[in-house]
Design goal:
The chain is mostly beta strands. It has eight helices and 42 strands. A hairpin with a 7-residue loop joins strand 18 and strand 19.
């Protein structure tokens, strides 16, 4: 801690010297300490929205990028994450074909805010862990993008901004009624078609605002409903693990553990409502009450066929190796098939009160809010297992997913080849609640010299509770016969080529049968518990965290020679105390354990912007940022997944990673909506958190003594990230008509990361870029948007990195303004599905495939009215 504290003090001292000592006594009034005003919506066209975004970036007190409401609305983006992928330096993670989370300049530890507040919630995932308990902010797939006026990405911090974003902060700004000059009402309806699922489903958006009492009282209400059913075709849950071979070519080879082929049909419905009431009590005092509600209901049906290789020595015969990895061979494996239904409705609530007072250089803002997120996840599964080991030949080479040929007398479609698996009827339930109470006060005052002094404090009380339940039973053959189904080869992974079992016997579980049967076999002995299923205490936790933060900041304007500048410098201090209650499970005995942790972070920051010319800006920033560990990572209890023999758990003693960083950016404004920008950045991160995977046996968790894969988060390393980003936004006004409606947005980010062991950091793609072609002329507009990111580490297995492969996506949109009030649009997403597919592989070897997920194209047509 001492090392980064010394570095932080040095940065702060340098920043203060630069920002304060060189300031002229005759400074003009400074606006650097103010956040950009992000309330007004301009919906008069693409070019107008880009012009507004350029103005905000130009006047910002830090390095940032912004997308305005009309810009978001005109992109073919279904949620906030997908809208943000167009921003320079932002990369997104997709789950089930939709964007879910973002990383900024290579770091996925990003704080997400709504009007500077925390929106709590959960998100669904395709890969383990079974549920990604984000804890500190909602997943960006849970909220519709249409609810927000602007999306801002802050890449360097101010001392006045809330700590918690190692890579940066994303602020989603809701529109406020007093910002509108006149009553405004809009409505949009869309039909969305998913190609593989072959369904057309609706989406509706509405917005209205008006003012009363001579414009002193304003009300606003916005809402959106979306429904979409999608199909994901996947190869999943394989790991390459060390296995010992004797005899010919003896040694240790990394060998696949599991080949699993699966299909997901995912049904999503997304509802969002946002409202606000504002009252201008006096010309100096404005009061605001607002609320946001979002609900994401994700239901999925999954069918899978798996072939698990044996453990121990010599598991594969006739093995073929590539870079010490077994990529082909023969094995006697365990065949398992299953049908699963899973539902996870999640809800997020955010209620806030705000008061702003501004008079004669004094600005006071008081803000308080309550945020809550809930989940009620249920899983029902019926599993079959082959009556004996099945001989199989596999080959990972020269194909999209590995081939698998089964031998012997085993018939994948014949029930006589299977038995109901041990504990093969299983019902799970996970109930989670997150809530946060926060209050803050900010005060700033402009001195006669022109300097602005600012300070404030923020208190947060965050709580989280997770209770898991699971009852299971081994059924008879006769009782599950009504729930058997043969998978149609024509419909199982139709877009993934290769030779593997496509016709097999699966199951069709129903909620009532599985829940009732499992509960009857293993009922909850406590009638007052939250579920009638048996408690699964190894996944339970009760978390409490209290944070007190405060800051001091000075800002102003001046000149160096003949070059004017704007600057700010300050320091933020945050004290965090947390307590985590979990259960230590040994055999059938569970003991409550309380883990505690506390830490204090001192985070200096300084930003200065030089107006070299009227159109050319140079910004310099230096700061320290931090990121608290996710709540799930802090829960030390262990969860054993009997399906894939994995054990996951947390670590309450995790330290928050701290980044010491510097930024230099250049901005050249060539017109009202045209911009050329570039930046160089460097981050030095201490106590970086990553999942570390090992293998072993734990008979307390698995009495059969099988080899398990253990995964726990650790402060694994220090790390360094360096890179640059460049971007251009340009309309071709100099071309003759009609070509003067052409425009281009292009950006590229290079981010080179390395930890102290020489490995790249988790989720950091070295190269990423966006290319967006635009056309807007008269009533017609069009966009073609392509984004790309290359491979990135996603975990470490037995000390080796596993990667997510390079991927890209192509989207398109055309629109036409029929009248002043009515417009129509056509959109197409994911036009190149195989390019956007997510592949995961081991240790730099793309042949050693861990998983593959292919999403479908979707098309939509809509009508929008504004009055």
């Amino acid at each position: 801690m001492a090392s980064w504290a010394v570095r932080g003090a040095s940065i702060f001292a340098g920043g203060v010297s630069l920002a304060v000592l060189t300031m002229s006594p005759a400074l003009a009034q400074s606006e650097a300490s103010e956040q950009p005003v992000l309330d007004e919506i301009i919906v008069t066209g693409l070019r107008a929205s880009l012009e507004q975004a350029v103005d905000i970036k130009r006047d910002a007190p830090q390095v940032m990028d912004v997308i305005t409401a009309s810009d978001v609305g005109k992109l073919p983006d279904i949620n906030v994450a997908e809208a943000l992928q167009r921003v320079t330096g932002v990369q997104i993670t997709r789950v089930f074909g939709e964007g879910q989370s973002v990383s900024v300049r290579g770091l996925q530890q990003v704080r997400v805010e709504v009007d500077g507040r925390t929106l709590l919630g959960w998100s669904a995932r395709l890969s383990p862990p079974e549920n990604d308990q984000l804890g500190r902010s909602s997943g960006l797939d849970s909220v519709p993008s249409s609810l927000f006026g602007k999306l801002a990405v802050y890449k360097t911090p101010l001392a006045s901004q809330v700590e918690g974003g190692l890579g940066g902060t994303v602020n989603l700004t809701t529109p406020k009624p007093l910002s509108f000059k006149e009553p405004t009402f809009t409505f949009q309806t869309q039909g969305v078609y998913s190609q593989v699922t072959d369904k057309v489903e609706p989406a509706f958006t509405g917005f209205g605002t008006t003012k009363f009492a001579d414009g002193r009282i304003g009300v606003m209400l916005a809402g959106e409903y979306q429904k979409r059913t999608s199909t994901t075709q996947a190869f999943e849950r394989n790991n390459f693990l060390n296995r010992t071979y004797t005899g010919t070519n003896a040694g240790v080879n990394q060998t696949p553990a599991l080949l699993q082929y699966e299909s997901f049909v995912v049904d999503r419905s997304r509802t969002g409502v946002n409202g606000a009431i504002q009252f201008e009590a006096t010309p100096e005092l404005t009061l605001t009450a607002d609320a946001l509600y979002s609900k994401l209901v994700t239901g999925r049906h999954q069918d899978f066929f798996s072939f698990r290789l044996p453990t121990g020595s010599n598991p594969v015969t006739n093995r073929v190796t590539e870079n010490n990895m077994v990529v082909a061979g023969n094995a006697n494996g365990t065949v398992t098939t299953a049908g699963q239904i899973r539902n996870e409705p999640t809800e997020s609530y955010l209620y806030g009160l705000n008061a702003k007072y501004a008079d004669d250089g004094l600005n006071v803002e008081a803000d308080g809010y309550y945020s809550r997120g809930t989940i009620d996840q249920t899983i029902q599964i019926i599993t079959l297992q082959a009556t004996a080991a099945v001989p199989g030949a596999f080959d990972f080479r020269d194909q999209t997913v590995p081939s698998l040929t089964l031998g012997g007398t085993f018939n994948p479609a014949n029930y006589a080849s299977y038995n109901p698996a041990g504990n093969g009827v299983r019902s799970n339930r996970l109930l989670g609640v997150l809530d946060e109470w926060t209050g803050k006060l900010d005060v700033s005052y402009e001195l006669e010299s022109g300097l602005t002094l600012a300070g404030g404090f923020r208190y947060t009380d965050l709580g989280a509770r997770s209770n898991a339940y699971r009852s299971q039973v081994t059924p008879t053959r006769a009782e599950i016969e009504p729930y058997l189904t043969v998978i149609d080869a024509r419909k199982f992974l139709p877009d993934i080529p290769g030779s593997f079992p496509r016709t097999f016997l699966s199951t069709a579980p129903t909620f009532d049968y599985v829940f009732t049967r499992a509960q009857a076999a293993q009922p909850n002995p406590n009638p007052n518990d939250r579920s009638t299923l048996l408690p699964n205490s190894q996944r339970d936790y009760d978390f409490s965290e209290r944070t007190l933060g405060g800051y001091l900041m000075v800002s102003g304007e001046g000149e160096v020679g003949d070059i004017p500048f704007r600057a700010n410098a300050g320091v933020r201090v945050a004290r965090t105390r947390l307590s985590m209650d979990t259960f230590l499970n040994v055999g059938t005995t569970s003991t409550l354990v309380t883990d505690k942790n506390s830490y204090t972070n001192v985070l200096p920051s300084a930003n200065i912007a030089f107006n070299v010319t009227d159109d050319f800006l140079v910004r310099v920033g230096a700061s320290q940022t931090m990121q608290r560990a996710s709540i799930a990572d802090l829960a030390p209890s262990s969860f054993f997944n009997a399906t894939n023999l994995s054990v996951t758990g947390g670590n309450a003693q995790l330290k928050p990673p701290v980044s010491t960083q510097g930024d230099v950016s250049f901005e050249y404004y060539r017109g009202k909506s045209s911009l050329i920008s570039g930046a160089v950045f460097y981050k030095d991160v201490d106590d970086f958190i990553a999942s570390f995977v090992t293998t072993g046996v734990d008979t307390n968790l698995d009495p059969q003594g099988r080899e398990l894969v253990f995964s726990r988060p650790e402060n694994l390393a220090s790390a360094k990230i360096k890179g640059f980003e460049i971007g251009i936004q340009q309309f071709m006004d100099f071309l003759p008509s009609p070509f003067d409606g052409l425009g281009l947005i292009a950006n590229y980010t290079y981010s080179d990361s390395e930890d102290n062991a020489g490995f790249p950091l988790v989720a950091v793609s070295k190269n990423s870029y966006n290319l967006i072609g635009l056309y807007e002329k008269g009533e017609f507009s069009a966009r073609l948007a392509y984004n790309y990111r290359d491979e990135a580490v996603f975990e470490f297995s037995e000390g080796r990195p596993s990667f997510i492969g390079a991927r890209s996506q192509l989207d398109a949109q055309v629109g036409y303004q029929l009248t002043k009030e009515i417009s129509v649009s056509l959109q197409a997403q994911n036009l190149l599905p195989k390019k956007s597919a997510t592949s995961e592989y081991s240790n730099f070897n793309e042949t050693a495939l861990n998983s593959y997920a292919l999403s479908e194209r979707r098309f939509s047509a809509g009508v929008r009215a504004k009055f």
